[in-house]
Structures
1.
Amino acid sequence: MATGAASTIPPRRRAHRSVPWLALLLTSVAVAVFFPSQYVNGTLDSLAQTDTGLASTYATRPGIVQVAFYLHIVFAGLALLIGGFQFSDKIRRYRWVHRWIGRTYVVTVVVGGASAFVMAFFSSSAFIGFFGFGTLAILWIWATYRGYRSARDRDFAEHQAWMIRSFALTYAAPTLRLWLIVLTVVQQPFGLDEAVVAANAYAPVAFLCWLPNIVIAEVIIRRRGLPSLIRTAPQPRTGAQIMSRL
């Protein structure tokens, strides 16, 4: 009986929670596979002529910047590809698998973040792009390092919290594409030139692609009872509470 009925509740809750995780995982894999694959069909110069992705922005940059560009699309793509699997309960049961995926993720973030910081100096959005994408790169590496450090210290609550923040920043890649679509569509009624529309849409995504993500991540962290960066001010004690301690 009753125990059988009660036992059906946790699986339903787990299934309900798995829906957004599955959507996040599928979009991560799609972006991680599709967008880097754009750049395997030619050089940046040839791809710039067809206005493929960011090729036109980095085709004329110094060689070291182009190396950073390729490092970023490879390693950031790998981080996005494997990062979501770290939140799978089934994978976490096999600690050695979780551990090695985690170590690989940390390496991909460090390389992807460092190369992204170099790229930020040459963003087509100038200062907005530098500060937006540059800040994202620094925070991405920092959050991932804190997650790795807390795991080494066996503080697993902190580890979970920081890795949620880290992947929220990794997920900036899909949200950037989503914001570009939204900001492009809302400009259509104004009859602007395509180049103007593209420039208007791309400028704010330097911040929009990650700021909402990190806010949502903090909400998730608080809901799960993990250590949050948002500290709640202590509530003032009533007279009855003070007297009860005397």
Note: Residues 1-9, 239-246 have pLDDT under 50 and may be disordered.
2.
Amino acid sequence: MHSTVEDRTLLPEHRAEIAELRAFLDKAPQADEPALLRGPDGSAHSLPSEVYEALMVVVRALSEGKAVTVAPVNTTLTTQEAADLLGVSRPTFVKILDEGGLPFSRPGRHRRVLLADVLAYKEKRRTQRRRGLDELVELTEDADLYDA
């Protein structure tokens, strides 16, 4: 057993079993009791809600044929990794850094950003886009541009 937390990428190798698990989880009713994890020796342990939710996210992604990377939030990313996560080009991401959009460090020649900061930036951007779309819909409705 490892004593340190490390990044781990999971590939959808057991597609049939994952599909069955997703179908089971999708049908499971919400319960007041926590989910249980049963070990190979038969012992059971209740799962905290955040662990259960993480497992649900992993199962959903793997069932869709996507790879999943599990990483601690304090993980540092290269500018290319961060750009890929945000869905922008590396030069665009570097411009975001240069404009003060995200904090970064420069342990050597290359910049590094914290995964937590990139995820927070991504959520902030999503919220701003959603707000902008809501305002656009409101303006369109106010101007009576929708057909009845």
Note: The longest helix spans residues 115-142.
3.
Amino acid sequence: MGSITINLNVAAPYLSLQEYARVTGIPFDTCRGMVRDGRIIIRPKELAGGKVEVNMVAMLKDAIANS
């Protein structure tokens, strides 16, 4: 049997949490909980009150590793 090649494209390396919620169809408040419990990987914030940015590259790597 031959090998399988899968090509994946990440439209943007980081998405705001609100945009991530829109793209995935997951309610925003649920996404906030998923950030708190570690199911959504975010870019480290420089300031405590900084904007949450979902690390889409890390999320993709995690999905591949757990498939």
Note: The chain has a mean pLDDT of 92.
4.
Amino acid sequence: MPELSRFAGMVIYLLFYDVGQHNKPHVHVYYGDYEAVIAIDGELLAGSIPGKQLRMVTGWLAFHEEEAYRAWNKAVQGEHFEKIPPMK
């Protein structure tokens, strides 16, 4: 699972060819024992994550929306993508 970014104890991943279960462009987020699938538009698609971390990820996705969509488009075609820097 290629890493897209890492910040505040969370790791954000994209999967190659990941269009089967969630057709909407999304990322996979891991935070401790929590796992969530969050659409690039901020919708929680599956799993769970504490509210504070969900707000951080959705804010980060909003700020990096163009880069996240670019990475998603590459990943679903099996191509490597650039990492996105964490929030500062």
Note: The chain is about 25% helix and 30% strand.
